[in-house]
Fold each of these.
Amino acid sequence: MLIHPQFDPIALQIGPLAVRWYGLMYLAAFVLFMLLGHYRARRQAAQGWKTSDVDDMLLYGILGVVLGGRIGYCLFYKPGYYLANPLEVFAVWQGGMSFHGGLLGVIFAMWLYARRSP
C-alpha cells in the first residue's frame, strides 16, 4: 500500500483567489519552454527556426494541455456526471484536470501546429 504525503494544494491565497501548486508547475513549464525555445531558435536560425515559431507553438501547447486536460478529466473520471450536467464542464474553478487528456491535447495541438505552419 502506498502512502502519499498530505499537503495543502494551495500554494498562495489572497482573499478568494487561490494559486495552487499544479498551476505554478504549469507556469514554470511554460516559462522554461519559452526560454529554452527562444534560445534554441536563435542558435538554429540557419535551419529556419524563428522565435515567433516558438511563441506560436507555445500558444498551441497551452491550449492543448488546458483544453485536453479538462476534457480528459470530464471523459475519463466523471463522464456520467458531465453528461447529466454539461455546463459544469466550464466550471474550471472547481478543479479537475487529467494528465492523460492533457497529453492527448498537446499531441493533437502539435499535430495541428505542424499542419498549419509552413
Note: The chain has one domain: 10-116.
Amino acid sequence: MANTTTLNQQNQAVPLSAPTLSWYVVYTKTLSEKKTAERLQLAGYEVYLPLVEELKQWSDRKKKIQRPLIASVVFVRCSAVALNGVYTVQGVSRVLRHLGRPAVVQPQEILNLQILLQQAAAPEVQHMQLSPGATIEVLRGPFKGIIGTATQVLNTLRVLIDIRHLGVAFSINVPKSFVKVL
C-alpha cells in the first residue's frame, strides 16, 4: 500500500495531496468514438463523450441515432501522470498537445458542452443593446451557467461557446434579459 502521508518540519504527519485531475482531449480513430470511450471507462478513466441525437433516413426506414458532437474526440479526466496510460487503450490515436504539453480543457468548457446538449431549442430573443465581443454569462433559462462571447446578428443575441484548443465553436440564441456581462 502506498504511503499517503509525509512529515512536515515539525515531524507531524501531513497527508499527501491528491493528484490534480484535469480534462484532456483524446483523439480516436475514425468512427470509433463510442467504443473507445467505453474502453477508456473500463480502463478506469473518467470519460465524457458529447453525443447529439439525429434522425437518420435509410431507403426503407428512419431511425434516431446518437453521433458524437465533435468527430474523433473523447474528453478524459485524469492526472497528468495517468494520461500516458490512455495510449494502451485500443482506438486511441493521440492526445491533443499545446506548446509540447498535453492541452488542458477548462472545466467550464466541459460544463458549457453539457448544458448545450441538454437543450434542443433556443428560447426567443428579446431586444437589448449589447456590444459584440463582450464576455457574458447566461443567468437563467435552459442554458443557465454557460459563459461565452456575445455577438450581434440581425438584432438577435448570439452567444458563442468557444473551445479554443480544438478550434471548435458553437453558437446559441438566448434572450438578452437572461444574460449579464462579465
Note: Residues 1-9, 120-128 have pLDDT under 50 and may be disordered.
Amino acid sequence: MKIWCLLLLIGIFAVFACSTVLAETGLEVEEVNKENVVVAEIGNSAYYDLKINNLDGEDQFMVFTLVGVQIEPRDYFNLSSGNTTVPIKATMSEKILRERRDLLFFEYQIKGMNRDIFKSKLLVNIVSVKDILEINYGSFHPDNDKIEVFVNNKEDVRLENLTLVLESVFFRESTPFSIGPHENKTFLILVNKEGTEDLVAGPYISTTTVVVNGKEVKLEGVVDFLEKEGTSVSESTEGIIIRTTVINKINKGNTPVAASVSMKKDILSRLFTSFTPEPSQTTRDGFFIEYTWQKNLAPSEELAVKATTNYTIPFLILVLIVAVGGVARFYYLKSVSISKRVSLVRTKGGEFALRVVLRVRARKSVEKLQLTDSLPGMTKLYENFGKQPDMIEKDSRRLAWNVGHLGRGESRVYSYVIYSKLNVVGRFELPLAHARFEKDGKVGEAYSNRAYLAMEKS
C-alpha cells in the first residue's frame, strides 16, 4: 500500500513539474533545417526556420546561444499568441570551423521578457571542400585536343567564387568556378601535346588546387591516357626482396582488340620468377628471355599479367658472402696478429703453474713494436725460465718485450711461466696480450685472443 502511495505522489509531482515548465516557457518549437551545411574553408552561415507556437500572451523574445555560434536576429522581437515562423541565421566561430567536422548539435535558447528560458538543439553539418567536391576526367585519346572535366558537388550547399587550378603532364589551366547544391558540371580544357609524344599509355595523376578565400585545398584525379586502339594500360611494381609486377590492359573501345603484354627477364632472375597466367610465348635472346601474353579482348574485357620474383634466397646468400668477406678482410688486413696459448706445468712441490706462449706475427712490415702482457691476480712470474722480459713492472704486474722491427711475414715467440701457491679449480682465464707499433708513421694496436685453462677438482 505504501508503494502505491509513493508511486502516486511521484506521478502527481511529475505532472505538476511538466505543467510548471509549460507555464513558465509557454512555447512549443519545431526546428526546420533550410541550409545547414557549412563549408569550413568558406565559413558560410546555416539557416533555419523556428516554427514557434506561443501558448501564452504576447511577449518580447530573443534567440541566442552560448557555444561559440552567433545567431541572428540578435535583438528582441515581438511574438504574438499562436503560431509564428521565425527565420534565423547561425554563424560558426573560427574555432569550431577549425576543429570540428561532420554533424554537430549545438544548443540554442529562447528568452522572453517575462518567461523562463526555452532550450533546444539545432543540427549543423560542417564539411571541407575536399570532402564535398569530386573531380574526374574523361579518357584521353592521343588524337584528342581537349579533355572533359567532371565536377560533382556531393552536398546541399552552394560554392561560389572558387578558382580551380588543374595540373597534369597534359595540361595546366586556371579557371573561376561556382557550383550549386548537388550539381554536376562538365567543361572542356585544352591539351598541351608538346612533350607527350613519348609518354606510355596508362593512368596519370592530375592535381586540382581549389582556391577559396585565400586558402588552398588539394584534390587528386586520374587522367586515363588511351592507346590508339582504345586500350588502357596500367603497370605497378611493389616490394624489394619479393618483387611483384602487375600489368593490366583493358579494352575501353567499342570493338574487339588483340592485346599483347611483353616482359623481359635475365637468365638469373627468371629462376626465381613465377607468372600468372603462364605466358603464351617464350623467346630467348642472349642473356635475356622475353615472355609474351596474347589475348583478344572484347569491349571492357581485361588482360592481367602478374610476375612475382622472390629474391629471398639470393639475398641471404649475398648477406652471408658480404659478412664472411668483411670478417676475412678485417682479419687479414690487420698489420699485426697475436696468438696466446697456455698449458699446465707439473712442479715437484705440486704448486699450480702455467706456461704462457705468445706468438706475434706481422702481416705487414712494422716498426717500434712493443709486446706487453699482464699477470693474473694471485700468480707470480717464475724468473728462472727462458728469456726474461725487457721490462717487469711489479706494481702493475705488467711484462713487456721490445720487439722493434718486424718484417712482413716475420714472427716471434715469447714464453714465460707463472705459478701460485693457491689451488685453482674451474675455468682460469688470462688477460689479453697487447701490441703497440708504428706503420707508415701511424701508431697501431693489436690484441691477442682470450686464453684460458679448465681445471678439475682433484
Note: The two ends are 98 Å apart (CA to CA).
Amino acid sequence: MVSSNKGIRGYTAPLAVRMRPRTLDEISGQHQLLKKGSPLRALADSEAGSSVSVILWGPPGTGKTSIAHALAASSGRKFVELSAVTAGVKDVRTVMEQAQAHRELYGSGTLLFLDEIHRFTKAQQDALLPGVENGWVTLIAATTENPSFSVISPLLSRSLLLRLNLLTDADLSDLLDKALRAQHGLAEEFSLTSEARSALISFASGDARRALTSLEAAAHAADAQGAKSISGQHVESAIDRALLRYDRQGDEHYDVISAFIKSIRGSDADAAIHYLARMIEAGEDPRFIARRLVISAAEDIGLASPHALEVAVAAADAVALIGMPEGRIPLAEATIFLAMAPKSNAAYNAINLAIEDVRAGKIGQVPIHLRDGGYPGAARLGHGKGYKYAHNEPHAVAHQQYLPDELVGTEYYAPTTNGHEADFADRLAKLRAIIRGESL
C-alpha cells in the first residue's frame, strides 16, 4: 500500500493541481508557442522587459492557467489573479489602482491573470483598458471561446492572441510519465500498463487536466486492490465513476454538449434529446444550450433547411422570455427539428475557405467598376465606370466581373443535393454561367 507521505496519500490537492508546471519548460504541448524567441519566452524573461498583453484561447486542459502561473514565477512581476466569474468592475479598478501605485513605488509592472475573460461584460473589460494602455499591468487573459466575439475590440487590438491546441497523444503520454515519476505526483508508487496508458490518452482527448484526473482516479482504484500496476480495468472503472458526474464547470460539461451537437449532426433525434435532458437535469444554463442550437443550425444544416436557423433563434428567444422549466419545451422542439432536418455544411465550408484565402493574402483590388463612385473626385478616378445595374438586365443578373482579378473563377460555395440546397445547386449553376458570360 502507498506510504503516508508519498503517492496519492498525504496530499489534499488533486494531482492535476500538484503537477501544475512551475516554468514554461515544464509545460506539456504547445510547442508552437514556447519555442525560443517567442512572445511568451520574452514575457518570462524579466530582463527582456516585454510587457505585451496576451489572450490565450484554447479548449479546457491545454495549459492556459499553467502558462500564466509559469510566466508569473519566471518574470518576477507582481502577480494578481482574477476570475471573471466572481470579479466585478470594482475589483478590476482596484487592481488597476494598486498596479499603478506599485509601478510608481517600485518601478515594476504587475502581471494580471484573468480567467474566463469571455464572461466579462463590456463595462468590466473597459475597466481593464487604462492599465493595459499605460503598462501598469501585463494582462494574461484566458478563454475557451473565440475572443473575436467575446472581447471588446480596443482590448483585442492591444493584445497578442495566441491559440492553444489540444495536446497530442505523445504530449499526454509524456505528461502521464511525469506524473508517475514526480515526488509531488505519484512518486513512482505505480506503473502503467500499455492498455491503461492507451485508455487514459483516448479518454483525455487532448485535455491534460482530464488525463491527470483520470490517472489519479485509476491509481486510487489500483491502491484499493493493493496493486502497484494500473491496468486498463482500473482505468475503466475509474472513468465509469467519473461519467456519472456532471460538473457544469468541468469536463462533463464539454463532453455532454459535444455529444449533443454530434447527435444532432448525425440526425439521431433520440440521442440528442437524451443529452438535452442530462443537461437540463444537471442545471445547465439554458441560454448556453440555446446558443449551441443556433450555431448547429447554421453550421450543420445551413441552406439544406433554411428554416432551421429560424427555429433555433425562436427557441433561444422563447427560453429568454419564459425561462425554465417551461423553456425545456422549445429547446426540445428545436433539438428534434434540427436533428431531423437535412444537413449541409456548405455555407460553413464556404466562409472558412474564403477566410483562408484572405489570410493567405489572396485579396486583390476591388474591380474599378464596383468601387464607390459617390464621393467628390471618384468619377475622375474612374470609380463605378462600366458598372451594370443588375435590375436592368434580364433575370436581374448581369454578365459582369465581381471578384478581384486574382480570384476570377474561384468557387467557395459548393451546395449539396440535400433538402432545399438541391434547388440552390441548379440555380447557382445558372447564375454563375450568366455572370461569367457562359452559355446556359
Note: The domain at 251-340 is CATH 1.20.272.10 (Zinc Finger, Delta Prime; domain 3).
